[in-house]
Amino acid sequence: MANQQDPPSHGINDLTKQAQVVVVMVPLPAQGHLNQLLQLSRLILSHNIPVHYVGATTHNRQAKQRVHGWDPNAAANIHFHDIEIPPFHCPPPDPKAKIKFPSHLQPVFNASSQLTEPVSMLLRALSCKARKVIVIHDSLMGSVIEEARFLSNAESYTFHSVSAFAISLYEWEQEGKLIEENELFPRDTPSLEGCFTDEFADFVDCHYSKYQKFNTGCVYNTCKLVESAYLDFLEKETIKEGIKHWALGPFNPVTIPERSESSKKQHFCLEWLDKQAKNTVIYVSFGTTTTFDDEQIKELAIGLRESKKKFIWVLRDGDKGDVFNGEERRAELPKGYENSVDGIGLVVRDWAPQLEILAHPATGGFMSHCGWNSCMESISMGVPIAAWPMHSDQPRNTVLITEVLKIGIVVKDWAQRDEIVTSKIVGSAVNRLMASTEGDEMRKRAAEMGESVRGSVAEGGVSRMEMESFIAHITR
Ligand SMILES: *[C@@H]1O[C@H](CO)[C@@H](O)[C@H](O)[C@H]1NC(C)=O
């Protein structure tokens, strides 16, 4: 079972033709984006196509160090291009910021323009050697890969790091239309107010739309079984431009290698989960761009304890632009808290093996910010979500999870985003998800969806077929 997580390798016959095609991945330097393109690299490598993963040295290191479920250092045919960029400002997140968007990352987003020249050089070099150069770039890195337009044997594809739901809604609104005018979108889907800083909205304006027209197609970390209505919508929207769309997700592995065979030491929280009964633990984590202030941390801490449910809580600040640059704030818990939840809850301060935790039978719920990586990981492992959105696409992903897919409940109502979530709200949300008939029904639905999504990447499944169609297209 050692390699059960690896997609099967393809025959030697494909090899000669495909060896002349190379793929270049250009992610945006933020964890959720770095990770998804690294995971997609793994899927493409399994088709014997060499992958070049390009980023600043520190971001490549971050992506490799944090990946779950496989070892990129051991994967043949993946070439990491570690680019040294000039130092950029790297402030810590502000726990008190009113808008929760990680505005402290703006300097690193801006610094990604430093990659343009090295990426252009790489593309030119590859263009001379390969029959075809396929660039898959983050939707916000269009300017960095502009060179691809001028190379006759290069093609570029936009990777959307968010849900097809969020993208189709964005496209709809770009046409000046209202949410209520399209029955695909629930009427109470929130506007983007409070989701971004103005500075980031400008960054999106500068780096997204005008580069789309040079693209051959779009790839998504989603699955037709989950978002077919929105994928169909996107397909229709761009039929005139001839832009193609491929739903290649989930990118993350859908099975976890046998533990004894994994070389890494077992994380203590997995050993703890082994001792818990099925579906009794709620996993609480808010991703890599959430930073709570002390008051919110206290309410969450007390709420979890008072829920009387078992929990694993990953308590860390949001990432800085360079995660290896200096110490992180150690958020304060109420005095004696960890002792008071001994045997009931675990507080994890370091990087947690999220995918393994979600895949564990003892995990029965996920309290999440609803970043798209977390949503896809939870969906593919069949775990229902208690949604606590913070910024960006997360409030809208919350609508997708709770209203469209009906595999989750709302903890934090986005309309009340400026208010603290009290311990009472936390406690009752945990109980609603973990100990009610409604919660059990969601868990059942999530488990069924997880099973079909895992099946979709197996032989004959829809995501596998999408991947085969994408590979056939890029190697044509
Ligand atoms: C990022 O770049 C924009 C556009 O050049 C500039 O206006 C802004 O001040 C920069 N922000 C930071 C934090 O460097």
TrEMBL record:
Protein's UniProt keywords contain Nucleotide-binding: no
Keywords associated with the record: Glycosyltransferase, Transferase
Catalytic activity: an anthocyanidin + UDP-alpha-D-glucose + H(+) = an anthocyanidin 3-O-beta-D-glucoside + UDP
Keyword Ubl conjugation: no
A GO molecular-function descriptor: zeatin O-beta-D-xylosyltransferase activity
EC numbers for this chain: 2.4.1.-
Family matches, as CDD domains: GT1_Gtf-like
Pfam families assigned: Glyco_transf_N, UDPGT
Organism superkingdom: Eukaryota
Pathway: Pigment biosynthesis; anthocyanin biosynthesis
Family as reported in the entry's similarity comment: Belongs to the UDP-glycosyltransferase family.
Protein's name according to its UniProt entry: Glycosyltransferase
Organism of provenance: Populus trichocarpa
Species lineage: Eukaryota, Viridiplantae, Streptophyta, Embryophyta, Tracheophyta
